[in-house]
Amino acid sequence: MKKLLLTGLTIAVVAIGLVFNASAESKGKSLTLSGKGCCAKCCLKETESCQNVLTVEKDGKKTKYYLVQNDVSKGFHSQICETVKDITVTGTCKKVGDKLEVTAEKIDLAKKK
């Protein structure tokens, strides 16, 4: 009985954590993300038109952030259209359907260590 109660409590805590994480992403909070930047069409073969995608790996889990087509994103696209580069994106994030979208305010190539 204790095992069942402990398992139920663990599942509840994990579910609450996921809800809070998803709500922070869907509220459009400003953030800075670093990861691998590439084109959703040319590199990932996921879309019919070019679009920047940032893939962030944390704790062995990869999360894709699709960059909204604004002037910042379009102006940077040529640097990652047919290649993968380390980039840093600053902007606001929101969940649209099952995708995370970032409206970029700034995109930079990651500084080499």
Structure description:
With 113 residues, the chain is an alpha+beta fold. The protein has a single domain (2-109), classed as OB fold (Dihydrolipoamide Acetyltransferase, E2P) (Beta Barrel). It has helices at 2-26, 71-76, and strands spanning 30-39, 52-58, 61-67, 85-96, 99-109. It is globular, with a radius of gyration of 17 Å. The N and C termini lie far apart (52 Å). The model is unreliable at 12-26 (pLDDT under 50).
Topology diagram in text:
Layout: H1 2-26, E1 30-39, E2 52-58, E3 61-67, H2 71-76, E4 85-96, E5 99-109
Parallel strand pairs: 3-5
Antiparallel strand pairs: 1-2, 1-4, 2-3, 4-5
Report the end-to-end length measured between terminal Cα atoms. 52 Å
DSSP helical segment count: 2
Total domain units: 1
How does CATH name the architecture?
A: Beta Barrel
CATH class: Mainly Beta
CATH topology: OB fold (Dihydrolipoamide Acetyltransferase, E2P)
> What is the percent of helical residues?
25-40%
What is the gist of this entry?
The chain is built from 2 helices and 5 strands. The chain has helices at 2-26, 71-76, and strands at residues 30-39, 52-58, 61-67, 85-96, 99-109.
